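Hi, here's the filled form for the chain we discussed.

Project: internal
Contact: R.S.
Residues: 491
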Amino acid sequence: MTDLTDLTVLDALQALRSGQVSSRELTQACLDRISRLEPAIRAFITLTPELALQQADEADRKLAAARRGSANFAPLLGLPLAVKDVLTVKGVRCTCGSRILENFVPPFNATVIERLLAAGVVVLGKTNMDEFAMGSSTENSAYGPTRNPWNLEHVPGGSSGGSAAAVAAHMAPAALGSDTGGSVRQPASYCGISGLKPTYGRFSRYGLVAYGSSLDTVGIFARTVADVAALFPVMAGMDPLDATSMDLPVPDTTLSASADLKGMRIGLPAEYFIDGMQPAVENLVRQAIETLHSLGAEIIPISLPHTEYALPVYYLIAPAEASANLARYDGIRFGFSQQEDEMWAIFRESRGGGFGQEVKRRIMLGTYALSAGYYDAYYGRAQKVRTLIKRDFEKAFESVDAVAAPVAPSSAFRLGEHTDDPIAMYLEDVFTLPANLAGVPGLAFPVGFDGSSMPVGMQLMGRHYREDQLFKIAHAYQQVTDWHRRSPQLA
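And the returned structure, exactly as it came back:
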């Protein structure tokens, strides 16, 4: 057998069910690889080896019973998984990449974690991230930056960079992330793997520590689109603990071996191919679109005219919601506390010392946008333009089934390259923000490498709650290409 850490999700599940490999063997192989590579990559904040092996042993008992016919195979029984440190796992530290939650141990599981555990997954640990999911490079973590497995001098993307790096480096066959403005799709592109941002409301947000409540979604990383599709139905569905989750049927995500896309209409928005893009990114995305055309898809030029406003709209709405959500970290109830003699001094010193620079910047932006005299001019107007962006997508989906576009204007940049230039950092999300503002699903997958041998990804955006169409198109592409099978060479 090949190295166990080279198994994809579907290959691992098949090997586990057949008895070819045990969950303990697969989990230990992942833990051993993490131990070897982690000092260089720093994909994890908290590892849970004892919990993982305990869960693996329990999975092996259930697998043996299922093979005897005395029980059924749970969908993901025995599969190791990494979890972004913004989702709560009962009894495991949840820092959100921040010093202010350095010692916070949640007493409950997020709903998606509860569902995955019921399906048999094994939790390897909590992955590194930009503090409170605010960033595009995983350099804003209070626990140090994560490095891109393809080149350790480059960022893995953000804010879910730890999860993306862990999957790309074969530390885990799959991982969870969160996507508020591109935080799954952009690191998936930078690390050469597949990543899903579902429709807003498809996955429960209960237990996902809030950044921008009208934008946040839980997402999935894996090496192939078929692997992402395997986790999707386990996590999807209505949750009474989250009023924004939708009570809708979960579509069938079973994928066929056929690469036939006849009848599929894919829109190509002019606004996503802009001046200043890295030429290799545009060329590789256009080549991928030609491949989809060769498989039978009809490529239709479309316009999403309000795309140019997505960046300023996002950086009014998201910081405003963050300002409200992060007000609870006051140094009194839980989290980091700087002891002072006077109440307001506790607030000021705890928040000033516990939050990093980017989080403080966004809290101040959001507080200003919500302040008396400025609310209508900034936040209120941004919400109106958000509606126009959403209508652009609704109009486009009257004539196409999906929209194809680059994930980011460039491949992964070097560590420190944008540290002193917040605007340049924000521009890395210019192509991913609209999907969050409109609430539509987005799926990123690799389409090649640039001249520096760094991965480049493309994204598909679809109608609300039609993730199955995105899986079908991207899986067809992966049936005739091998970019998703390539892995970084790590010592």
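Let me know if anything looks off before we file it.
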